[in-house]
Every structure is written in structure tokens, then in C-alpha cells.
Amino acid sequence: MPVATLLPFTATPNRKSVSPTSFRLTEKFILLLVFSAFITLCFGAIFFLPDSSKLLSGVFFHSSAVETNTRTGSDSGDPGSAGSDDRVLAKIRKDHEKALLEAKDTLQKWPDEIKQDILNEKEKVAKESAAQGGNDVNTLPFVEYHRPPGATGHEPQDPETKERRDKIKEMMKHAWGSYRRYAWGSNELRPISKQGHSSNLFGSIKGATIVDALDTLYIMEMFEEFDAATDWVEKNLDFNVNAEVSVFEVNIRFVGGLLSAYYLSGKEVYRRKAVELGEKLLPAFKTPTGIPWALLNLKSGIGRNWPWASGGSSILAEYGTLHLEFMHLSKLSGNPDFAQKVMNIRKVLNRLDKPQGLYPNYLNPNSGQWGQHHVSVGGLGDSFYEYLLKAWLMSDRTDEEAKKMYYDALQAIETNLMRKSSSGLTYIAEWKGGLLEHKMGHLTCFAGGMIALGADGAASEKTGHQMEQAAEIARTCHESYARTALKLGPEAFRFDGGVEAIATRQNEKYFILRPEVIETYMYMWRFTHDPKYREWGWEAVQALEQHCKVEGGYSGVRDVYASTPNHDDVQQSFYLAETLKYLYLLFSDDDHLPFDHWVFNTEAHPLPVIKKDVTDIPNEVE
Ligand code: DMJ
């Protein structure tokens, strides 16, 4: 501010012509006062001016966008300069004019056009925030990678076991090679028609076989194939799809497969992809209770349940089979949401009364009440029980709540569902509102392995009993194979109407390369080293080779009681993820993916135990 402008307020006007020498003492004194006031003001102004310029810019340039421009814009030499202020004012004027023109335009539009504009704008914002999400995934927190022990194995000493193990690897080569040749990038292979196949479980996500097979390729040391798969994942695996997927299937196969591939190989791309997909699944939990929907549109985030599920219910085996993967997602992303979502599922379940201590297959996500009282350790229920036990094991046996829930549930299953046939075969029946259906699914056969895995953690007086139960279930499931023409197990077998371990309904006679029986042989072998489990596994290998192997891969069969196979023309992705992996481990030594360091998710994807003390984890030398 110019100093001269202050003078008229302090000097007396009629003294203008008077010489300074003729001033009286009082006048001199006044002059001195005025002068010293002037000097004080000059100094004050030095401190005062910058603040006032800020104040001014606050009054005139209050738009944050403009503030940003004045700080960082290409033409902002000196932000406080008059030239810069003019430019900013000009910009504001221009923006206002533009806004006025747009408003005028909008007023001339039809309502439908306006609606479309709003939709386009929304889409733009959604895209931007998706890109923002992608950035988050790209900047995941640093996680020190430790490869848990036993990621790869070594050759068995015994020549026969080695030969058998080699044979399983050869089967994997045929399954993978055929998929690569005829269906690369599709979800699954049609081995007879030699083309790709996709079920609607994965929406338009592609590459289910690639992701499901990654860890099997790794543990079998098929590294050239693993690298080709990694390359495909890096370049092509895309979750930005406008399609509805099964939350459960995508979780166990894709999230599980990616997590295992990360833990086995240490490749960051797998951690990134797993977290990216996990984040896309989170909207499924937007229900009044937090019990997730079964189906989710990955683009809109809108979920719903299977239309056939009792009164709009979610399914026990679906919402109850997220825990292992989601705990690891929180660990690898630093985002606690994943863990909170699955812990909340438990909370809801623990508030509910359980009929006879059993968990019904249906639960309404809106009301938080059970649907129909159907209970099964096979389809619709199975992996919920498996995940209770494995949540405890994966927490390095610290998750006491999961432990209690598992052993309580197993007790209720034993009391209400486990039965013995007249010839002494133990089976697990299904329960419908208090009535037993004496049928056991191929899926239920996984329970032999689960019970064996949990036996050692049970109260000491129960360990032996549970090992016996597990062995009996393994025997029953073996019988369901042995009593067919093709020596492969039916989808479900019954213990009524004079039959035992045999399918009686045409629509239960198929075999789709499922793993559960072989899974149980693998666990039983590890815990007992009884050679019969390897023999039973080898019988299954021979049957697979004889009846399911075709030139273009491996196919399921429509009727295991027919003397010649009628192929269904699908090579399921779980054949590579589970069936062949469990067979390979059955003929491997116990230190290959040892149980004290790894748990398998329900799709046989190994996930490391989260050790209480991280220093426990030795770094394996490759
Ligand atoms: C797999 O996808 C999983 O094992 C799931 O838990 C049940 N069914 C299939 C294989 O049969």
C-alpha cells in the first residue's frame, strides 16, 4: 500500500506552507508522533500484506479447482501476481458461461435424453472409480514373501510308487495339453468335440481351467506350463465383466487358485489379481444381515439368490465357504474388510438356534432366519463343515470359536445323520425336517478325509473313534466305486429298497471326474500309511484311463453301471485342480505340502497356515 496515502489523515492541512524551522515545540512533538506512527505502519505493512493477499484470494478464488490451477497450472508463474489473477478470473468467467450454455442446452432436451445423459455421466464416474480401485490394487502394501516348506516334493524311493506318481503327471500332461491345444482361454474343455466350454457359474470371466490348474502345474514341477499360464493370467485374466457369477465358485476356484499360485511361486501378479477379484466380490455382502448373495453381477454389484433356494435363501455351503480365502485376502491386502465380512457370518450363525444342533442348508439373508430344515454333509452343506475345521487349523489352532463349532457340528452329524447299513457300511444320510433320506452323495465322501484331518484335534477320548469313522466312510465310498461296471463312483448312492452303496435313479448314475473319494484316500494314506488307500487310488487311476481318457483329454461319463462309457464331453476344471492333485499327493511323500504348514481349500488349493509366530516360517531353499 503506498505510504503517501496515509499522510492527509495525520497532518494538519493549513500547515502546508509553513517552514519546518518555524514550528513550535508542540507542533514539533505532534510531527514526531505522526512520523513515528508512519514508520510503525510501514513495518506493520510488511507483515500484514501477504495475509491480506491470501484473504483476497480466499474471497475471490474460492473454487478448489481454481486454487489447484493457480498452484500447479502450466501458466502460473507467480500465483499472487496481477497477471495470474486476471487469468484465473477469466477462467471463472469462461466456466460460468459454459455452465450457462449447458444448462440452456439441457432445458431444450427431452426427459429421455436428460436421463440418458445422467446414465452416461454415472458410467463415467463408475469407470473412474474402478480405475481408482485398480490403482489401489497396484499399490498393495509391501508383504515379505516366505515360501512355506514342501511347495515341491522329491521322487519317492519305492520304484512302484515313483512309477505311479509319474503316471499321474503324465495324466496331467494329457489333460493340460489337450486344454491348451483345443480350448486355451476358455473356462473348460470339451474333450470329445475338442473345443472350449463354459458354464454360467463364471459369468464371462474366462480361463477357469488355467487358474484352477496353476498350483497343480507348480507342485508337479511343470514349470514351462506354469509360465505359460502365468503369462496368460498377466495378459488376459479380466474381472471387469458385466456378468453375474456364482460367488462361491469364483471364490473357491479363482480366488483360491490365485492365492495358492502366489504362495507357491511368490509372483506378485497372483496376489494382485486375487485381491482385485476379492474386492469385486465384496458387494455380495450388502444384505441386511451380511449373509452374502449366491449370485453377483460384478459390474453393477447387484446380488441375488438362486431362484430355486427355499424362499430366497442363501446356501450354507456357499456363504460358509469363503472364510479361508477371505482371511488370506485381508492378510495380503492389509484390508480388514474381508476378514470382518466372514467373521460376521459366524456371528449371525451363532445367534441362531440349531435344530438338534444341525445347520440347515438354507438361510434367508434378509430376515436372518433358517429356510427349509434340510441338512446335508453333501451338496449344499459340505464345505461349510470343512471350513470350520480348516479355519481353526489355518489359524495355527488359535481360532477356538471355529474349533468348537466344528466339533459340535460333527457330534450332531454323528447323532442324527450317520448310520450303518445292514451289512455294516457306515454312511452319512440327509435330513429333511427330521426325516432321514438314506442317500449319500459322491460329494459327501470328502467327509472321510475331513474327519481324519480333525481327529487329532478332538478330545483325546474321541480321536480313535473319529479315525475309525473316517476309515469306515472311506470304505463305503470305495464300495460305491467297486459296485459299478466302470469302477467309478455314481453321483449319489442309496441304502434303501434292498440296495447298499448303489445308485438307483438314472439321474444319479453319472460320474463327472469328481475328486472327493480320492481326496479321502489321500488323507487316510497320510494319517495311517495303510497301503490299501494307495491301491484304491490306483484302481481309480486305471478306471479313469480306461473309461474317461479320450484323444482330446478326459471326459465324465453318463452312467457308471453301463458296460461301455457314454461320455458327457466335459473336462471339469476341478479334475486338474483336485482329482489329479490329490492322486499325485497320494503317491508322494508326506513332506510334500505337509499338513502342519498347509491347508487345502475346498477346491484343493493349498493355503499356508498363518503361523502365530512368523519367525516360525523357514524360508525354503529352492
Ligand atoms: C469342487 O468344485 C469343490 O470340491 C466343491 O467344494 C464341491 N464340488 C466340486 C468337485 O466335485
Question: What's the structural blueprint in terms of helices and strands?
Answer:
Blueprint: H1 25-60, H2 64-72, H3 82-107, H4 111-138, H5 159-183, E1 188-190, E2 195-197, H6 208-219, H7 223-236, E3 244-246, H8 247-265, H9 268-281, E4 295-297, E5 303-304, E6 314-315, H10 316-319, H11 323-333, H12 337-351, E7 362-363, E8 374-375, H13 382-394, H14 400-416, E9 418-420, E10 426-428, E11 430-432, E12 435-437, E13 439-441, H15 446-455, H16 460-482, E14 492-494, H17 516-528, H18 531-548, E15 549-550, E16 553-554, H19 573-586, E17 598-600, E18 606-608
Helix pairs in contact: 4-9, 5-19, 6-7, 6-8, 6-19, 8-9, 9-11, 11-12, 13-14, 15-16, 15-17, 16-17, 17-18, 17-19
Bound molecules: 1-deoxymannojirimycin (DMJ).
| Share in helix | 40-55%
Q: Tell me what portion of residues adopts beta-strand conformation.
A: 5-15%
Q: Whole-number radius of gyration?
A: 36 Å
Q: Write down the overall mean pLDDT.
A: 86
Helices, by number, come to 19
SS class: mainly alpha
The side-by-side strand order for the widest beta sheet comes to: 3-4-5
Hetero compounds: 1-deoxymannojirimycin
Distance between the termini: 75 Å
Number of strands: 18
Largest sheet: 3 strands, antiparallel
